[in-house]
Request: fold
Amino acid sequence: MTELIESLLRGLGTGSVYALLALGFVIIYKATRVISFAQPAFMLAGVVAVTYLSPAVGFWAAVPLAALGTALLALGVERSAVRPMVGRPAFVVAIITLGVDVAVRVVVNAFIGLDVRHVGDPWGLRTLALGPVEMQQRHLAAVAAAALLVAGLFAFFRFTRTGLAMRAAALDQEAALAHGVSVGAVFAVSWALAGGLAAVAGTFAAAGASVDSALWLIALTALPVIILGGLDSLPGAVIGGLAVGVLQELVATYANDVAWLGGNVSVITPYVLMLVVLLVRPYGLFGTREVERV
Reply:
């Protein structure tokens, strides 16, 4: 039982990172109807920024500064590479984001270099004992950070004029324009939010470990998350992220009991889950069901 609870707690920590990444994907998709494949690059850029800033200003100041810098980077990408493509097919814009992802990661990798880089988090691999159950402090911190940011996002979308404008544009862009909503501003804010969330998610993904050029692969796990939760559902992104994280950790813990599965089956678990969801419920658990008749 102790092993099961510890696996669940680790899964919640990992799932919190996935949830933050997935929220970025969903926010951009709801605003623009485009899946941005540049999120892995923004995550890596944010983490590397934290590794440079934390020795100078400390971890707690480095994270918001890096999130702000990554948000500005994402905003710049939206203005320079995505905004001119408004009105073009969504797959064209999606491919452009793939190019942006590769270009940004190449530049960021040059800043990683050959040195071992750390985000300078205060937790490392220390654990917190809850009776017989132990939980790594970095996982607890990830859960707390995700909860705080999710609460802030939901308050933003519910109680602020910008958030309400983003919700209106997500429902019907033409109607929102007719009521004076600046859809261009909605696009910009959505990209900036996604960039900031990616930076925070990457920081907690790298907590207790070193930063290398392969860290961006973690962001790909957000794709199964948004397929599970639904492409246009913010609650689905959160629930899907936690579910995928917990499932992955449970498989990692108990896969050794089934010898033929091998030791790394947990790595592909989210993608197997994605395939199953696409087959039985392609719009996800909480996504909007769209029917097109041709």
Summary: The CA atoms of residues 169 and 175 lie 8 Å apart.
